[in-house]
Amino acid sequence: VHFALLANDMDREKDIRDIGGNAFKFTPPVQEGEKDDDDILTKYHDVCIVGSGLSGSVIAERYATLLQKKVLIIEKRDHIGGNCYDYIDDETNIRVSKYGAHLFHTNSERVWEYIHQYSDWTPYEHRVLGLVNGKHVPIPVNIDTVNRLFDLDIQTSEEMSKWLENEQTHFEHEPSNSEEMAISRVGTRLYNLIFKPYTFKQWAKYPNELGPEVTARIPVRNDHDDRYFPNDKYQALPKQGYTKLFENMILSNPLIDVLTNTDYFEVNKKINCGKLYYTGPIDSYFSDLGWPKLEYRSLDFERRVALNTDYFQPLSVVNHPGLDDDFTRIVEYKHLLNQVSPHTVYFIERSKDDGEPYYPVPNKENKDLYKKYQEMALKEKGVIFVGRLANYKYFNMDQAILNALEMFDKIEDR
User: Fold this and answer.
1) Buried-state track 351-383, b at ≥16 Cβ within 10 A, e below 16
2) Which stretches of 204-344 are DSSP H helices?
3) Rounded CA gap, 157 and 139, in Å?
4) Over the stretch 85-97, which tens digit does the pLDDT of each residue have?
5) First-to-last CA distance in the chain?
6) How many beta carbons lie within 10 A of that of residue 266, not counting itself?
7) Is the pTM here over 0.85, yes or no?
8) Which are the contacts of 160, defined by CB distance < 8 A and separation ≥ 6?
């Protein structure tokens, strides 16, 4: 078994019609199509892949394109693309993402060149606002955030650095949790206004219950730069959306068969594969052990439409850290890709325990439990575990792509 390591290691009916039912190369799950699905399952494939998200799709494409191998992708959902899946909203004709906004950014030349094989891209530098005490302020925190919240007149990076130093709490030890990490970086005032309530809404745990890495990865700036990813060389969105990117990667290749609406654990006795890549949750793979499940946070999306409205909010994403709101953020997709419509549609996001697994909960209990699952995976012959769910680790999109590319190179000794 080979275990994936992080690179450098870091409306449903309309949806299907939009991307073309025939392109899936499978018959929808009705009686007359069952035999076709069985034929695909039992046919020999050089490589079988569980999951059609970024990790699975990249590996499938590499085997089919470079090695001319026959590949089978088994996907539990009714669509390809994993959490990147997007579609055209019926009522507004605006392209939206089913599982939350996906903003591509990378410094990897290899990843940037790879994705351009399958889509044209539109440059886009993401910016986020937070609504705090009735004021829209830049997120991550910068000079303008502090000036607006505290009625200050900080002008230079030197002044901002000095202000932060006066606000910070300095410990004689390394921060042991996210509360200590946050106040060591921004002090108690910004922590109580933004970090503490937002973290609780996102994780259902206060920062002192989470490892320090949660707030350590939130940038704090000492200038006026309001870009969300200022250090990434390449930032863009696929011109025709992410679903089209996946169609071009896997559905256009005659060597790749795709079965959606198919649970691997219900058909794994039927498949005939040379290699198996598993990109699903690692605890689901070993569910027969009866061990506790790894803890994830999921998201709920409440769709709302504003008719005859240009825009609902000033930017595509506005965070709502305060506990007065029972949601974390609002995403308005019309801002992305310069979309034109007389109406707008936006999604209110709420974090929750149950549902699709999005974010691993980084506390000691889960880390220790994952190590036990990892030990079992290392003993599992003939299975290659790859991707964020199999590694119980959050990957950015470019990291997932690079991770899959490097895993393919490693397995095939390229």
Assistant:
1) beeeeebbbbbbbeebeebbeebeeebeeeeeb
2) 213-216, 242-246, 264-267, 282-285
3) 17
4) 999 999 999 999 9
5) 18
6) 10
7) yes
8) 142, 143, 146, 154, 221, 222, 223
